[in-house]
Amino acid sequence: MAIAITGITPNTGPTTGGTVHYITGTDLNLVTNVTIGGTVCPLFEDLSGTLMKVTSPAGTAGAKDVVLSPGAVTLAGGFTYAATTGTEQLRSTLARKWKLDINTGTVESPVWTPVRAIGELKPNIESNMEDDSDYDSDGWASETKTQMKWSLETKVLRKVGVTSENYDPGQEALRAAADQFGSPGTPQVRWYDRDGGPEAYSGFASVSWEPEGGEAKDLDTVTIKMSGQGKRTTITNPAL
């Protein structure tokens, strides 16, 4: 095989640069340099042979070529710089943008089953900070980040199919994992922006299943907590 580029997401960014984008293709682990519009990207990292994370350089407004080296592999006009203005209209985004899937297959042959009837979902990164103050800081304290841990917390409504009367398969897979130890209790999950935005992640997690109970008038709801086991991986957004 040889280096190839099939796309870049998002494919637009401000002329000031500094935004994160994801390049898809093949043999991206062999790439030694990335340019957008002829300017070298200040940071790039191959996440796998088919996915690369890059930070855009500053550029001028308009469509630009994305070029990978060696071989000058080019995505012609693949990236567009949009001129930024301080008066651009902003719009709100919604918390319900998130989708959650659980792998009910294997790592080698994943079967991504959606978790439906989500009422809330909170992705979280917890950073461990250690004091690294020294005599040279003129009395000012400082801390450095030494570790990160990811987690997800979601609240689901326990709905059933109108015909089958069965609970949602994605929810049931998480409930089953919550009763297990070891690998069966550590499923692979992925969560991502359903609108195709740059936020898309995957990882393995230990699961807890916490029914909320309630009064006679209340709906049946469950809080599901997923504690990350190891690294959270950036993935190509499945919604694209």
How would you sum up this structure, described in words?
- This protein has one helix at residues 169-178, and strands at residues 4-9, 12-14, 20-26, 33-36, 39-40, 43-48, 51-55, 62-69, 73-82, 98-103, 112-114, 118-131, 143-157, 188-193, 200-211, 221-228, 233-234.
- It starts with a strand and ends in a 6-residue tail after the last strand.
- The strands form three sheets. Strands 10, 11, 12, 13, 14, 15, 16 and 17 form an eight-stranded antiparallel sheet that branches.
- Helix content is 4%, strand content 49%.
- The model has no long low-confidence stretch (mean pLDDT 94).
- It folds into two domains: 4-82, Sandwich (Immunoglobulin-like), CATH 2.60.40.10; 95-234, Elongation Factor Tu (Ef-tu), domain 3 (Beta Barrel).
- The protein is mostly beta strands.
Helix and strand layout, with pairings?
Elements: E1 4-9, E2 12-14, E3 20-26, E4 33-36, E5 39-40, E6 43-48, E7 51-55, E8 62-69, E9 73-82, E10 98-103, E11 112-114, E12 118-131, E13 143-157, H1 169-178, E14 188-193, E15 200-211, E16 221-228, E17 233-234
Parallel strand pairs: 2-9
Antiparallel strand pairs: 1-3, 3-7, 4-5, 4-8, 6-7, 8-9, 10-11, 10-14, 12-13, 13-16, 14-15, 15-16, 15-17
